[in-house]
Write a structure and sequence with these properties.
The protein is mostly helical. It has a domain at 37-154: Glycoprotein, Type 4 Pilin (2-Layer Sandwich), CATH 3.30.700. Helix content is 30%, strand content 5%. The protein has one helix and three strands. A three-stranded antiparallel β-sheet has the order 1-2-3, with helices on one face.
Length: 173
């Protein structure tokens, strides 16, 4: 004689399945969040290289008004006479927003690091600028504590690739 599952056995089986599903969802959501952070850092690196190539062609970084759109379209250039120097697109496809759907903040000159040419900032997962989870093109210069790494003030000089200027030094003449 076959015996069917009792209601209690069925509820226990469902509870176990729900618990396994919940644990799997937690694991994968953490993985996605970390992947978004990592991909945003890759996007920032891509922008920095594209901005370097733009600077080589144009002998300047895009203005704030032109923004990062100047990396994928010469139509964004303010001065039509400069279009002959434009060797783009410097990005193969536009990336107008970060991984969380927020438009990038592009500021010229830098407000984050004195003497730098520009800031490119993602608002991060909270989608709000000027919070602790913001990601920016100067992240390589910043340690885990949020402070600039030791020796950064020794960069000095100008490399004309977004790091320009004598940050950390004072001009006394």
């Amino acid at each position: 004689m076959r015996r069917a599952f009792s209601l209690i056995e069925l509820l226990i089986a469902i509870a176990i399945l729900v618990a396994i599903t919940f644990l799997a969802a937690q694991t994968f959501s953490g993985t996605k969040a970390q992947a978004d952070l990592d991909l945003t850092k890759v996007d920032l690196d891509t922008f920095v290289s594209s901005l370097e190539r733009f600077e080589l062609s144009m002998r300047r970084v895009p203005s704030e008004e032109e923004g990062i759109a100047a990396l994928w379209s010469s139509a964004a250039l303010e001065d039509e006479d400069e279009e002959k120097n434009w060797r783009g697109p410097y990005l193969t496809s536009p990336i107008p927003e970060d991984r969380w759907g927020t438009a990038w903040r592009y500021v010229v000159p830098s407000e984050i690091v004195e003497g730098m040419a520009y800031d490119l900032v993602s608002a991060g997962p909270d989608r709000e600028f000027d919070t602790d989870d913001d990601l920016h093109n100067h992240m390589a210069l910043v340690g885990a504590d949020g402070e600039f790494r030791e020796g950064v003030e020794d960069f000095g000089g100008s490399d004309d690739f977004g790091l320009g200027g004598d940050f950390g030094s004072s001009e006394s003449e």
